[in-house]
């Protein structure tokens, strides 16, 4: 007999798809526009299909499954070698924007690309001259070449640019998705924002519902982690967005088109807020993060206006004519001017009519020496320059960091594991090597970030990465790090064990090993004294050469004796104290007094 849960898990996805198809078919019959959906799509796309977008999405999926070995481990792809660490590591720069950190990262970016990439491709079009059969055709204007070659090549080029000028070891297609969205926004503001804010959410929800029709969730503790916004490559998103804007505005001008200013401004503002472009942040000490949301919101609002001015072509000036002349009169006011008095009387007399207004304003210009207003083209050019300057600043800030060169792959750890050209080690309180290129001149002491945890480094690949933080390892107790490259992967296991003295810090060890190899001690913490006294003796837990020991010190004579922590159910003696180990706790006893001195560290 088939379990009810399994039956529902099979039927619900089928019923969901059927309901969706019936809804689409019904609405299509009810909605009868003058121009059908298929005809609209075919007017700019070959067979009405965004072939270029499909090719690009296929490339991203192929990179995940083949290059990152997602076929072997879908939930745990190889990511470390496919990040943009340095200009001296070409593989990372070429693959970072097409790679992903995991299935959630991949699905999130693909759901966005599925929405905005076809809109961007539709705006670009497979038929640059329209569907004019008599128009001369070159390889650049051939529909199939534009669909299957030029559009994918342009996207790959943008992906490389976003890697070259991204801040830090980024990974993911999101910079390109933001470029798609910006390009689409300047052409079809409302369609794009509805797709991003509405349709994309529907796509994600449908995917999750089809994948897991009925989910069971249990409240569980989670390891310490940075705020969600601190894991977002905000500079990379802004870079892609600005690149898409510049390309979109350039195409608009080449074709002599301009979007509606109000629609564009609203769409950009909504997109900037909804997609977190205001989340400007930086790192503090000891896992502290600073979110500059006030300045971020101000920047988004200002850029929305500047972008609107740069993309639109409106005859109306920015500053109203009446306000401009009043300001000019204030600057150049001459007391008791007969001309100004006459103009005031004339305006008061004809305030209900507009026929004489241009003449009066021209007389005012001649009388006050005010120049005629600048045309909207001047404002448009100025706004365009501002957009280009902002793009240059956002891209340029990454150059010092991306000239990173790793001189030495070792740190101050007790031991390290070598896998190919990788060095994997555990260290605490070491300087983050990625900030080294920025610490120059006045920034030498201003920018210093310390890292603690599992460090992966490679001089050959110019990479240095805190792969697992010490806080996470303290919570989980065991983690794994996957290193590798095209065609190979290796897993390095990390495990922490420790004892917690009563009332004091944990004493712990960290071991590293690869599959088939013996454990290797990578780190030992300092000893820690229990906050108890037995017969005027103090007990300290310490780790010596991979072995946990109990040190008993007489507070009267200062004499100390040590013994290893006994096995479970066994006992040991040192300094006049007897130690008994239960399942998770060590007790010390003397002269009839028995107290707990330490307990085994537990993990979630």
State the gist of this model.
The protein has 604 residues and is an alpha+beta fold.
Task: Describe the model.
The protein is α+β, with helices and mostly antiparallel strands and 604 residues long. The protein contains 17 helices and 18 strands. It has helices at residues 4-30, 37-42, 51-67, 90-95, 103-124, 143-164, 174-187, 189-211, 234-255, 261-274, 293-311, 321-332, 338-349, 357-368, 376-396, 399-402, 470-476, and strands at 281-283, 289-291, 416-419, 422-431, 450-458, 463-469, 478-485, 488-501, 507-514, 520-524, 528-529, 537-544, 547-554, 560-564, 571-574, 577-581, 585-590, 593-600. Strands 7, 8, 9, 10, 15, 16, 17 and 18 form an eight-stranded antiparallel beta sheet that branches. It has a four-stranded antiparallel beta sheet with strand order 3-4-5-6. Helix 1 runs antiparallel to helix 8 and helix 3 packs across helix 6 (143-164). The chain starts with a helix and ends with a strand.
